[in-house]
Amino acid sequence: MLWKRRKHLDKLGRKIGMLFSKLPLSPNNWTGMGLILSIINLYFLFNKDFLIATVVFGFAALLDMIDGSVARIKKKVTKLGGYLDSVTDRTVEFVIILGLFLVGYPGFILPMDLWIFLLLFGSFMSTYTRAASFEKKIRRNVIGGILEHADRMLVFFLIIIISIFSLQYASYLIVLTAILSLVSALQRFTKATKR
Q1: What fold characterizes domain 2-193?
Q2: What angle do CA 110, 165, 118 make, to 5 degrees?
């Protein structure tokens, strides 16, 4: 849903890019640092130190925004950089979902392990339906859906914050996110196959 506000986010991204482009780091350096912070975040999730996990995740999300913005400002946008960013985004998402799995949230109707598996499946299928549609030349740009990558990252951030106060309420949000990720994948599949 955040993709609908892309124009507003692009303005913010431009300002961020201007600020951080002054540092002697390449866009790929920013991408790598975001990945490293996500892996560090895994440690804090595993230890249920949700306050520090929230802060680390916030910085990792900021770095995810910085890399592309810096590339555009420095005019260093490359296919390889875009590919690296995309693969890193999937890796970061996997690491966050793995962290949620390691927390041991209480189940809701079904065991939480199953919900987290469905969340992982929905999140990756949402991305894969777009990539496969492009690769098979069915549709060039299958975007949208109720819960895209940026939306999921925002929800993961909320899950970690809520976990500070209640694992039970956070588990409800995980269940909702799993369902919406599956719906998003289905929406993209439908959009790609629509004649």
Answers
A1: Four Helix Bundle (Hemerythrin (Met), subunit A) (1.20.120)
A2: 25
Q: Answer positive or negative: Cα dihedral of 58, 6, 68, 11.
A: negative
Query: Which tokens sit at 180?
Result: 């919406």
CA contacts within 13 A on the Cβ side of 73 = 23
Place of tokens 């790929």: 28
Q: Which residues contact 14 (CB under 8 A, 6 or more apart)?
A: 69, 72, 73
110: β partners: 108
> Tens of pLDDT along 159-171?
999 999 999 999 9
The yes-or-no answer on residue 89 being catalytic is yes
The structural domains of the chain, with segments of one domain joined by +, span 2-193
| Tens-digit pLDDT profile for residues 114-145 | 999 999 998 888 888 777 777 666 666 666 67
One of 64, 67, 89, 151 is an active-site residue; which one? 89
| Spacing of C-alpha 87 from chain mean position | 11
